[in-house]
# Entry
Amino acid sequence: MGSIAIALEEKGIPTVTLYNERHEKRFMGTILPRGYVDYPAMNFEEYDTFTSEGIKALAPEAFNFVVKGLTTWKPEYMKLEGDKWIPKEYEFSYSAATYQEAQDQFNSSFLKMGWGDGLPMIPPTRRRVDALLKGTPLSATTAIGTWGPSNADFTVEKIAVVAAMAGAEPEYLPVIIAALKAITSVRWDAYFPVMRAPVPLVIVNGPYAKKIGLNSSANAFGPNPKYHANAAIGRAINLAMASIPGNGRGIKPSNLAGNPAAYAGIVIAEAEDIESLGAGWDPVSVQLGYPAGTNLVTILGIDEMDMSVAGTIANLASCIGPHKEIWPRNRKAWDSQYAGALAITEMQRVTEGLMGSKTKAGIANELWESARVPMDKFKKLILTNEFGDPAEPNEFIKSLMEDPDSAKKGMPVAAGPNRFLVVVTGGH
Amino acid sequence: MKRAVPGIIAVLMTVPLMFSAGTMTEAAQAKKALAGKSSVALTVLNPQGAVKKSRELAPRLETLRGKKVAMWLSATRGQVFAGKGAELYDLLEKMLKEKFADIHIVPYMALPMKFAPENEVVAAIDKTKPDAVIAGFGG
# Structure
């Protein structure tokens, strides 16, 4: 629908688009990347559009929007400055009888504008943001990348603003910036967030993780009052992804089930200082080619997690099903795409040297082999057109299917075992 | 690599919800009592990033009076993804005609009620030579 509206605009015909929120990400994902940041579109709460009463109630607002969108239209929240659309307001003020009431006003106002996750936010005051900026040597105006449907600038100052909202400390900022630099280096829709809700898994290696108190021990994936950094960093990253881009207001959340990990993110540090771990247990940073001891942030966009305490490699492997929308269409993508990460949480066995002859590579190989998908299932999942009818494979997929191992053992879900990251963290 | 835990892994618990009907009203009254006694100002920064301007929208119309407006609906009434978009279009058509007496509406029934193939839909809309288009409701 978005590309049809744009085709008409390019013919010189003004258009305005109305839709229910189910289509927000798809529509804006079409309009905004093409540069139409100021396009007049109105979305409605989905349930309001499902009943005649709802439709009657929203009709007057829709009518006013249609008239304005086709005649006197000007974007509500952005203004032009040079060759950039910038927010109309650099800052917002809230006045109240008490600080608590002003803070409540700030929270409800930001949520209304689409900035926030529903949990209370810390007000990003000038003073707090300046304090956070002391955590990085980069200047506030440095843009570390552009990202989101509108390709918005991720400047250090805007990142510090959302870090403040998330409750981060200045020393967390380098990790947040590094994570967002990695995220903004990948196109917004490259990982199919149009409909789904992937959450970045953030793996931190190196001594800096310990210095700032990132948890790599008990309850690494969950709250631990002793370690504040994981949740604040994860929340800042997710708030940044939802708040900094957009078209004047935050990105609408997924219209599917969503992902609870989008609240505090999934941020873990690798336990690198376990003496009993020797050869074959190099940290992720080394696996990726960096010298041991490198402070490194690694990001993996994931949309499924198995946190089962009773999991086995085979059980975990069954979660790594191929997704049609992100299945690589050529050799280059196939060779570079990671299929997932496995966190080894059985720390008691690890620290007591009870892992036997197991190595990270061996575990990754077991996972890779177990994750193969029977050919019939693969065809049903991947080789269909948009209407669900069978479709022919392209040359690359055909070559994968013709591999003797694929026919015998099933289709692999990644190019090789090294396309899985194995991380040691958390749990006792 | 994870510890095996045999036996029950989930327990279903239900607890009836209890709340005081007056609590929310009292909270609202307390807030109201504070209103108008401003003494604290909280100023916060906007998290929204800047965006490079790269494209221009088609020029907008001065008015809808005397203009031809095509109402393209991307779905038929039976297609659930569009909700009751057709009912909204019916209401909008009525409201537009009331407000702009000489407006000419190309009704959605006269246009393809689908969103693909795109070039086919664009050509069908363009053929009606509209001055403006209302698009909706999904797809």
